[in-house]
User: Which sequence fits this backbone?
């Protein structure tokens, strides 16, 4: 009688920097940026402190690496939505705005950055965070401009560009203000339904500029 042999697949062992980032994310979320130390991160990750510094030269660099990873994941999900031509432009915008806040609500280190006031508009605690946040903001600004460009118009190119910039600015100012209330004050779940109503108002107001464009 032959015994059946089972093939056991070995699980891929996380890389050291991934382990460090995961532990750091847990501690940042629990204690905030200021009260989390590299010593505590090393202890929880079961690594020597010098090993942590071999991968990240400062607590700020480690924090920013986590923020960057979260923003990359958010951007990828939103880009997939932006590229989905199965929906018309305005329904896609509505889904974008709803999904954006939902993804932010699921972030960890990024929400710590908001709660600990590590950035606010043009005020940043450290330069690396500024660069990461501004890169995402610029990408999103371009996404919103493209929504405006989809509108049929007889205006000159210069005027359309000015309108697109104003539209993108308006959306970003609105979203930044709401993000502060939702995540700095932990009120996303409380105001989630109200946010959906607000998105409907925003999209419906924009709809008038698209009359006839998607018939």
Assistant:
């Amino acid at each position: 009688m032959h015994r059946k042999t089972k093939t056991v697949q070995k699980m891929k062992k996380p890389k050291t920097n991934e382990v460090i980032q995961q532990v750091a994310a847990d501690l940042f979320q629990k204690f905030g940026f200021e009260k989390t130390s590299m010593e505590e991160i090393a202890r929880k990750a079961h690594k020597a402190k010098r090993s942590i510094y071999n991968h990240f030269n400062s607590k700020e660099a480690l924090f920013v690496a986590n923020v960057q990873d979260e923003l990359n994941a958010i951007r990828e999900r939103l880009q997939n939505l932006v590229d989905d031509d199965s929906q018309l432009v305005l329904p896609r915008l509505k889904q974008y705005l709803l999904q954006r806040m939902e993804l932010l609500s699921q972030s960890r280190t990024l929400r710590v950055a908001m709660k600990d006031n590590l950035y606010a508009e043009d005020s940043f605690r450290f330069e690396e965070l500024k660069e990461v946040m501004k890169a995402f903001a610029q990408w999103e600004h371009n996404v919103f401009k493209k929504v405006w460009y989809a509108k049929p118009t007889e205006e000159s190119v210069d005027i359309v560009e000015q309108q697109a910039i104003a539209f993108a600015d308006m959306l970003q100012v609105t979203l930044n203000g709401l993000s502060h209330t939702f995540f700095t004050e932990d009120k996303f779940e409380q105001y989630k339904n109200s946010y959906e109503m607000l998105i409907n108002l925003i999209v419906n107001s924009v709809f008038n500029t698209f009359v006839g464009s998607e018939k």
Summary: Residues 157-184 form the longest helix (28 residues).
